[in-house]
Amino acid sequence: MTAPEKMHLMASIVESEVVNYLVDIPFLERVEMTRLVMLANMCSYIYVRRGQSVCVEGEVGDRFFVCIKGTLQATLQVSLNAAQPTFAPLIPGETGRRSSVTSLHENIGGAFGDKKIKALKRMGAGSYFGEISLVFKIPRVCSITALDDALLVYVDRTAFCNFLKIAPDAAVVLLEHVRLNFLDTLIKQGCTFLNAIPSRKLQELSYMSQLVDYETNTGGDA
């Protein structure tokens, strides 16, 4: 077998594995298999060395990631002067079935000035994150760092929007997924009004809600 043939075989194996992971993602579960194969073909591969950041908290991203191999850690900077939070912030891919949760109060990086690094979640093969960036241009809510060498695939916002043209149902489910995540975050932040609503009614509320992508005016005009 020649080198190009080996590369083609390896790419085919990885592509098949990507499709298997895409099937497990909640907002893609209604998408036909043929469409998922097309989405897998749109994905790009990225190899991340141990200690390298995939996403940085506060930076605006436009990529949705799926971990194929390796282990990743989600972390958050917490002010040392602020009261300890009683809630966990919205974590990318929190509904991923293959993710394992670590303690919010685990200190994995020490203090940096008046900030302290807190561990949120450890993720392995099949875990996904960054789906909100496919819909909104908002800063990343946490950093994602490789605990060991890792292989990931990603699709950017432009490619995913093109995919939605042939799989419009995925857009509806994704928006519902994002709405529920936002409502869940508000509940964790102590919104007593939402906390009193039964989960079934909360889902109905998410159907009625609208998500607005608001950008502040940076040009200095009123």
Automatic annotation (TrEMBL):
Gene3D superfamilies according to UniProt: Jelly Rolls (2.60.120.10)
GO CC terms of this entry: cAMP-dependent protein kinase complex; cytosol
Stretches assigned to the Cyclic nucleotide-binding domain: 27-164
Protein name: Cyclic nucleotide-binding domain-containing protein
Organism: Phytophthora kernoviae
